[in-house]
């Protein structure tokens, strides 16, 4: 089968979050979408830019297990910054062997 596009590999819309929102609100949004990760976006002019990613592992390790208050901790303090992203139309190919 030819290489699939990013959109074909991840057909559901991405969950997006704002950097300054509380982790508790972010976790609720992720849970409602049945998603284990969400993109943290920021408006730059007329475009949205991905600034980070928040995963369920980030929430568990950096907030819950650390005994931090998820209503007081903001997404930007525990997200992974500057993740690698691909366009929805980009294809994924196995490396040449």
Structure description:
With 97 residues, the chain is an alpha+beta fold. It has 4 helices and 4 strands; from the N terminus they run αβαββααβ. It has helices at 6-9, 23-32, 56-64, 75-78; strands at 16-18, 37-44, 47-55, 80-81. It has a 4-stranded mixed beta sheet with strand order 1-2-3-4. The longest helix is centred in the first third of the chain and has 10 residues, at 23-32. The protein starts with 5 loop residues before the first helix and ends in a 16-residue tail after the last strand.
Report the major sheet: 4 strands, mixed
Please state the overall shape, judged from the principal axes of the Cα atoms. Answer: globular
Q: What amount of the residues lies in strands?
A: 15-25%
The rounded Rg comes to: 15 Å
Please mark out the parts with pLDDT under 50 across 5 or more consecutive residues, or reply none. Answer: none
- Please bin the fraction of helical residues: 25-40%
The tally of strands reads: 4
Task: Trace the largest sheet across and list its strands.
Answer: 1-2-3-4
Let me know the average pLDDT. 86
Contiguous helical run count: 4
Distance between the termini: 17 Å
> What is the SS-derived class?
alpha+beta
Task: Please trace the helix and strand order, writing H or E for each element.
Answer: HEHEEHHE
């Amino acid at each position: 089968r030819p290489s699939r596009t990013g959109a074909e590999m991840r057909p559901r819309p991405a969950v997006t979050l704002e950097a300054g929102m509380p982790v508790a609100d972010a976790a609720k949004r992720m849970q409602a979408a049945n998603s284990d990760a969400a993109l943290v976006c920021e408006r730059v002019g007329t475009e949205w830019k991905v600034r980070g990613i928040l995963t369920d592992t980030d929430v568990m390790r950096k907030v819950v297990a650390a005994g931090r208050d998820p209503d007081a901790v903001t997404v930007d303090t525990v997200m992974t910054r500057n993740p690698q992203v691909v366009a929805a139309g980009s294809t994924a190919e196995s490396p040449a062997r």
